[in-house]
Amino acid sequence: MLREMKRWENVHLTGINKLPAHTDFYRYRDFEDAVSFNKENSDGYLLLDGPWKFLFLEAPEFSPPQFAAKEFDIDHLDTIEVPSCWQLKGYGKMHYTDVLYPFAINPPFVPQENPTGIYFKDVTLNELNEDEKLILKFNGVDSAFDLYVNGHHVGFSKVSRMPAEFDLTKYVINGHNRLTVRVYQFSDGTYLEDQDMWWLSGIFRSVEFFRINHHTVEDVFIETLPDEEYKNFTLKVAGRFFTDKVKEIKVKLFNQESQVDEFFIDVIDGRFHAFREMHQPLLWSAETPNLYKLTLAYSLPNAEEEMIPLQFGVRSIDIIDNEIRLNGQRIFFNGVNRHDFNPKMGRTVTYEDMLQDVLLMKKHNINAVRTSHYPANDLFYDLCDQYGLYVMDEADLECHGFENTGNYHWLSDNELWEKQYVDRAVRMVKRDRNHPSIIIWSLGNESGAGRNFTAMYNAIKEIDSTRLVHYEGDRMAAYSDVYSTMYTRLKVLKEIGKDNEGKKPHILCEYGHAMGNGPGGLTEYQEIMRKYPRLQGGFIWEWYDHGIEQVDEHGNVNYLYGGDYGDFPTNTNFCIDGLVFPDRTPSPGLIEYKKVIEPIVTEMMDQTYLKIKVTNRYDFRNLEGVILNIKVVSFDVLIEEKELLLGSIGAQEDLVMTLPISFQEALKHDEVYIHLSYLEPEDTSYASKGHLITKEAFLLEATKVNKVVKSNGNDDIAELNILEDDLQLIVENDECKIVFSKVYGKLLSFHVEGEEFVSNGPELTLWRAVIDNDMYKKDDWINRYFLKDAKEQVDSIHYQVNEGYIDVEITKYLSSINQAWGFQLIYHYRMTKEGVLNLQLKGTKVIRGKEVPEMVPRIGITMNVNNEYRDVTWFGRGDLESYPDSKRSQSIGLYRKKVEEMHTDYVYPQENGLRSDASFLALSKEDESFIINFKELKDFTIHDYETSALEEAKHRGEIKKSPFNVLTIDYRQSGLGSNSCGEEQLPKYRVRIEDFMIELEMRKIKKDDIVEESKFFRVR
Q1: What pLDDT does 549 receive?
Q2: H-type alpha helices, 314-417
Q3: Do residues 27 and 223 make contact, with C-beta atoms less than 8 angstroms apart?
Q4: C-alpha 40: how far from its chain's center?
Q5: How far apart are CA 838 and CA 438, in angstroms?
Q6: C-alpha distances in angstroms, 138 versus 148, 184, 194, 726?
Q7: Positions of E strands within 174-216
Q8: Among residues 55, 263, 280, 759, which is most buried (max CB within 10 A)?
Q9: What tens digit of pLDDT does each residue of 988-1010 get?
Q10: What CA–CA distance (Å, rounded) separates 672 from 704?
Q11: Cα–Cα distance for residue pair 906/954, rounded to 1 Å
């Protein structure tokens, strides 16, 4: 016996009584209201957002009898805010998966346990008349719903992230009306909506009501068609009315506030189209988002005047000579993947949320966004039009869970599902096609391959032949105008770039997985993509950390992820993978991406003559007028500052120029860096005058400090004494004291002037708290090579007393459980009677077998230091964290922070806070400091917690503080990579079992003397 399909399981249904899809527009009576584009002032508009009555059920079958009746008692029911996701309002269960469906795969059927929410809204309508059509619009409902009005079944809809409109004219009455909406968490549509995100349900986008004249415009769309030189364009305006009663439209065209054209269009049988020449119009691009306004005015049969305003951009998108070109010019995508997301409201986002996203993207040199993996809230596209972002608009389609069944193409190559696939594409295109920012339609994501994508492609091209179509799963680019891949390794990407003859242009629709501390290696991706013309950029995965906000009783904010709600199966913190934290604070990864994709590149050509080459990587913008701020700095001393305006440097051109600063004056100082900052010369739509576009810094090599030994021998200080027993070796005088364990062969304590600075260490470590991008290595590191448990064994301890100092040499062997590899270590300490401690640690690799890790997290030393010294000063990269494969954004300079500020507060705690390429660091308390001076540049971290505490914590605010600060100094640390979903650490950023040397000196100084004291050592 065949199972009977319920309405929400009926694969043959795309909806019941839904109105045809159309572009977004609004009708006005007044010109000033029209050109304000404020829909709330439009004619007949009513927003139904706000409190609705709500009944939550285990399944639709539990719906009360007569629940849809107008008289059904709702007074005792709960109230829920619309729009919202009901799981975040306390109904149902929170659940996060990346790939897996949360139920058995049996398409088109879904579980009988199908959480259902029934929404009720009473609406009063007055003065209804026969000229009106009354339309109810749902902008987003997950995943399917039935609509009832006054007890009548009006219609049914699915496709969660697309609008559904219904004509209520024959169902409503003057006065009180009852709207009832029954929403199903699961439907056959759920099989097509398996995107990597929280499973959230309900009416999550706005509900709108329109009272419109039944003769009015039904749809209108705009195209701009170029001539051969992309200078003059033809404007095409087309559309249809609900009836054939309107005969003429008056069109006015505006550039900003100035009218530039006026013409009339005849309406024949309710349809209209017109072509109008635009002579050398201002063109739209992400760099120059010029928008025109157009109004359509007409008289209705009742003699009322009505007006429709539209905004559009003049632009064309083509593939010419196998390149994606906008207005004839090759373009390059520096993009991101973006979900609709809010940490309090889930997929319910506000205009302010979207505006903040767009402004952040623009400020960080991002020029493109992919609406992964569904059409965004409609207002988002208005913002992309206005501020300038290239959009890849993606259909609400992903069947990722089928990959695990062994039949990835189950639905995509099944003709029974063709109508569902095509419906999702067509509705997207018909809603969004007036937006100039949209230059590519995407058929969906991670859904295998098959005939249904061919059908989608053909359906889109019938509606809109002016844009490109994308689908990454199309390995042969048969139904995609571009060749798209994701997480492609650099070696393969290079091969794609070389294989360009007669081939479609390539886009990386996802790369650089921004999970936790990362991504690393973005520079190498950018270099490859810029090198080969076939490669036209890509989109970082992704924009947000999808953490759900939790506030405790003390007001502390935390963010939850998969598994925190008891959800199973789950992909835990895999949803915490964005360039911005949940509160939309930029992560270090976003700061690095901004630098990597910088539109202005600077190279030093000749230091003696201070010649630089400035390369303009914009596709359209000339750099003329951009402010170049030049600062010549020695440590924290500003030697010289100049500001100038760049001359003409056209898009994709470069210019060699001489910096107007004094080389001779700079030579009088040490460690001189020239800092170049490129600033916006005027206010822009997204940033104020002076906004930093990008920056660069160069060391004047002639000023580099070669640290020398400068003795401070003092005859008035007593010589050092040696005290030892079977357990300890103590070196001391009235000035200082150092204690070694003879059992463990390590430094236990270092005192100067009666105060302990080091309380344990230094000891060699190969470990770092695992970052998300280590996820596929950590099991080997922990359970195969036992790197976390690597320990030192003492071979010998010797000391030698000299005049003014004592040498202590400790030889040790480091390895881990059951390993045949390790390091032979020589710790050479030299302690002067003045309290200066010098350390040279030499490590020699020992390999006795074949089982050797290809990569270890780090080779470094760690020690516990006095936590009263909490002011950190360093000369190196800063002020944010930086790692070997992610440090271009952090310039070398003198920086100061508190120890607690050296922590990067990732949602999922992990290794963080490294400061790279430091020549020294100092820890201070009031006016006293301890300087740690390096023989060669080193990386370091300092935290007020131990690594074990960091690993035990699973959320922000859970890291247990230690009674000391933990300082780690690296010979080298491995890079970050992107291997949570992407490229591993590149070979040059991997630390291996290798010989190494770490040399440093510690001494107590005055805080005011830090810089001068850093230029020399006290001990040979």
Answers
A1: 98
A2: 351-363, 378-387
A3: no
A4: 32
A5: 62
A6: 13, 15, 21, 81
A7: 175-184, 197-198, 202-203, 207-213
A8: 55
A9: 999 999 999 999 999 999 999 99
A10: 7
A11: 10
Written as six digits, the tokens of 243 are 């009836």
Phi-psi region of 429 (alpha: psi -120 to 50; beta: other; left: phi over 0): alpha
Q: Which helix (H) or strand (E) holds 779?
A: helix 778-779
Q: How many helices (H) and strands (E) does the chain have?
A: 12, 60
> How far is Cα 525 from Cα 200, in angstroms, rounded to an integer?
35
678 in Cβ contact with 694 (< 8 Å): yes
- CA 418 to chain centroid, in Å, comes to 33
Q: Which is it for strands 915-925 and 891-898: parallel, antiparallel or unpaired?
A: unpaired
Query: Any alpha helices (H) in 785-911, and if so which ranges?
Result: none
| Residue ranges of the chain with per-residue pLDDT less than 50 | none
- pLDDT of 1: 53
Tokens 């993009």 -> residue = 335
| pTM (2 d.p.) | 0.97
Residue length, the chain?
A: 1020
Phi, psi of 830, deg, nearest 5: -125, 120
3-state helix, strand, coil in the chain (%, to 5): 15, 40, 45
- Separation CA 609–CA 588 (nearest Å): 35
Pairing of strands 468-470, 438-442: parallel
What tokens does 712 get?
């401070």
From edge to edge, which strands make up the β-sheet containing 258-266? 258-266, 248-255, 292-299, 305-312
Quick one: pLDDT at residue 3?
84
Q: Which of 201, 187, 196 is nearest to 347 (CA)?
A: 201
Where do the H-state alpha helices sit in 393-537? 418-432, 451-463, 490-498, 522-531
Query: What positions carry a catalytic annotation?
Result: 446, 510
Residues forming a β-bridge with 366? none
* Inter-residue contact 132 to 214 (CB < 8 Å): yes
- Considering only CA atoms, give the Rg of the chain: 33
950: DSSP letter: H
Tokens 């350390």, located at residue = 839
- DSSP state letter for 35: H
Amino acid letter, residue 295: T
How far apart, in whole angstroms, are the C-alpha atoms of residue 319 and residue 334? 18
Residues 915/874, Cβ–Cβ less than 8 Å: yes
Contact 590, 683 (CB under 8 A): no
Residue 924 CA to residue 487 CA, distance in Å, equals 45
**Phi and psi at residue 818, to the nearest 5°:** 60, 30
Short-list 650, 674, 678, CA closest to 663: 674
439/619 Cα distance (integer angstroms): 16
Beta-bridged to residue 193, according to DSSP, are: 398
Q: What is the pLDDT of residue 12?
A: 96
Structure tokens at 23: 């572009």
pLDDT score at 703: 97
Amino acid in the structure at residue 857? P
What confidence score (pLDDT) does residue 2 get?
Answer: 74
Helix (H, G, I), strand (E, B) or coil at 884: coil
DSSP 441-456: EE--BS----HHHHHH
Half-sphere exposure of 488 (CA within 13 A, CB side): 26
Closest CA to 453 of 435, 470, 433, 429: 470
Start-to-end C-alpha separation, the chain:
90
Phi and psi at 882, nearest 5°, equal: -155, 150
Distance CA 125, CA 136 (A): 13
Whole-Å CA distances, 988 to 905, 936, 973? 28, 19, 11
CA distance 578 to 589: 9
